[in-house]
Amino acid sequence: MEEKEISQAVIRRMPRYYRYLGELIEDGVERISSNDLSGRMNVTASQIRQDLNNFGGFGQQGYGYNVKYLYEEIGKILGLNQQHNIIVIGAGNLGQALANYVKFEKLGFVITALFDVNPAMEGITVRGIKIHMLNELEDYCGKNRVDIAALTMPKAKADAIANRLVSLGIHAIWNFAHVDLDLIDKDVVVESVHLSDSLMQLSYNIEKNKKKNG
Predict the structure, then answer these.
(1) Using CA atoms in the order 195, 15, 181, 83, what is the torsion angle rounded to 10 degrees?
(2) Contacts of the segment 68-76: beta carbons below 8 A, 24+ positions apart
(3) pTM value?
(4) Which of 162, 164, 168 is nearest to 191 (CA)?
(5) I want to staple 147 with a disulfide (CB 3.0 to 4.6 A). Which of 69, 76, 84, 183 is the partner?
(6) What is the DSSP string of 151-176?
(7) How deeply is 83 buried, as exposed, middle or buried, from its count of CB atoms within 10 A (0-12, 13-18, 19+)?
(8) Nearest CA to 108 among 210, 6, 15?
(9) Angle at which helices 34-41 and 45-53 pack, to 10 degrees?
């Protein structure tokens, strides 16, 4: 049977459900209705039910959702029930900030190595994670499992490095370089994070509110 295609809009909401359910568990909440979850998340109850029905529903009429069970099931949907090994290409401020963010590991995303071209950084560790030289990339990938590569480097070199990673068998790229990657393998999963785009959207909404409030 062909797997049902889930829209990206639904996928983008799943981490938010996961986060809110985690907070409910911390607060000792055992079950919740779609209406109550709607009030917390500012998403309609109908939207919540539609989103979750894409994966089987999980709720019971008159009971609502078992919070811990739903949290665990969404974690499985998002692949958080397994470890993902990440390498970071570019050990500058952003790359080191990613390495220092311990919450990634709680979600199963483990940064195992950083790479850079600056000889002054060779052998330095960031929270116990070693910085390697970029010319060690092939050797490292040949000896270690790498699930995701994060690019935190200048955009001029991003395409070349990304395709080098693809040729090494890496099938997922977390792209912080401000460029849309042109990859030799179109099946590679790419998630691009353009921080300046987010700021520009914020700026637009600031101006919109100014006009709205006169």
Answers:
(1) 120
(2) 68/25, 68/30, 70/17, 70/21, 71/18, 71/21, 71/22, 71/24, 71/25, 74/14, 74/17, 74/18, 74/21, 75/18
(3) 0.84
(4) 162
(5) 84
(6) E-S-GGGHHHHHHHHHHTT--EEEE-
(7) middle
(8) 15
(9) 110
> What pLDDT does 30 receive?
93
Percent of the chain surpassing pLDDT 70: 96
| Contact predicate 181/175, CB 8 Å | yes
Residue tagged 């998630």 (tokens): 191
What's 8-77's CATH class? mainly alpha
Determine the CATH number of domain 84-197: 3.40.50.720
Reported as a single tens digit per residue, the pLDDT across 55-71 is 887 877 667 899 999 99
Q: Which secondary structure element, helix H or strand E, spans residue 87, and what is its range? A: strand 84-89
Asked if 164 and 147 touch (Cβ cutoff 8 Å), the reply is no
Amino acid at position 90, single letter: G
Query: Where in the chain are the domains?
Result: 8-77, 84-197
In angstroms, how far is CA 33 from the centroid of its own chain? Answer: 27
Tell me which of 120 and 4 has the higher pLDDT: 120
The distance in angstroms from the start CA to the end CA of the chain is: 56
Amino acid at 205: N
